[in-house]
Design brief:
By secondary structure, the chain is α+β, with helices and mostly antiparallel strands. The protein has 2 domains: 153 residues, no CATH class; 85 residues. Helix content is 41%, strand content 9%.
Length: 276
């Protein structure tokens, strides 16, 4: 599906705290990121991937901006979830459970999402780091900030520090390209100075790991990731239901129950007769 067929209207943001949230340690963007998906799902995934964090990626909103109805969009998102790119759930922040929608362009298996839910996802760095790719692309944002391969490698650790403080690619790019002097004589020196002097403060980290519950992509029921397969709970995935636990006492047929009751009444009547 060509980009020209998508709505040209700006994609809206969700309410603060909701919307798309990029999962950590994604691989660099490439042309084959969604080649394993069907064409429709690949087009939708590529569209979501380009959206900024915080964008509203609900079924209703996506259907307004893409040439698919809500039913088709819901089916597509289920397949994208099954492929490991999307998870919906809830996260506990300051004692309140917040609805979350996590996105990763790098397909993740159930084991990775289980580790993500526990808050202990191992760091996975690609050959070309996220910081290097951002720096190498600065020249496309503003030609005055074009950097060499050596300069990108030298500056990458400074950008990584921004990422460690929860800055996004957009934040870093704006800090490096907004309000540039004319002309820029030494783009690498300017980038180093801005990355150092504009470094955001360290975020307040919670000592405890995050409390997260992911939801079944089909029925929406909350569940721990260990109970989800390809984003779906057991019943929705088609697993056989667990056998019912054995009863401690066998269930008596109705006829035997009536017989026992009649015998008890007969004994009581006979006992009353002996006392009269």
């Amino acid at each position: 599906m060509a980009d020209a067929e998508f709505s040209a209207a700006p994609h809206p943001l969700a309410n603060p705290g909701y919307g798309k949230r990029s999962a950590p340690y994604e691989q660099a963007r490439g042309g084959s990121d969604f080649a394993h998906l069907r064409p429709r799902e690949a087009a939708i995934a590529a569209y979501i991937d380009r959206l900024a964090d915080g964008s509203d990626i609900s079924v209703k909103t996506l259907a307004k901006h893409l040439p698919y109805g809500q039913c088709a969009m819901r089916t597509a998102l289920t397949r994208i979830t099954r492929a490991g790119h999307l998870r919906r759930g809830r996260e506990c922040l300051d004692g309140r459970w917040i609805t979350r929608t996590w996105w990763t362009r790098t397909a993740r298996d159930d084991a990775w999402w289980s580790a993500f839910q526990r808050g202990d996802v191992p760091k996975q760095r690609p050959t070309r780091s996220r910081a290097y790719i951002l720096l190498a692309a600065l020249g496309r944002t503003d030609a005055a900030m074009s950097l060499s391969h050596t300069e990108c490698h030298a500056l990458a650790p400074l950008v990584e520090e921004w990422f460690a403080r929860d800055a996004t690619e957009d934040h870093v790019t704006r800090a490096l390209t907004s309000g540039l002097p004319t002309p820029v004589h030494h783009p690498a020196a300017l980038a180093r100075r801005r990355l150092t002097t504009k470094l955001p403060p360290e975020p307040i980290r919670r000592e405890r790991p995050p409390l997260r519950l992911l939801e079944c992509a089909k029925c929406g029921a909350p569940a721990y990731t260990d109970h989800l397969r390809e984003g779906a709970c057991g019943p929705c995935h088609g697993d056989d239901p667990a056998p019912a636990p054995a009863r401690r006492h066998p269930v008596l047929p109705a006829a035997r129950v009536r017989a026992h009751a009649a015998a008890i009444r007969a004994r009581e009547a006979a006992r009353e007769g002996t006392h009269t």
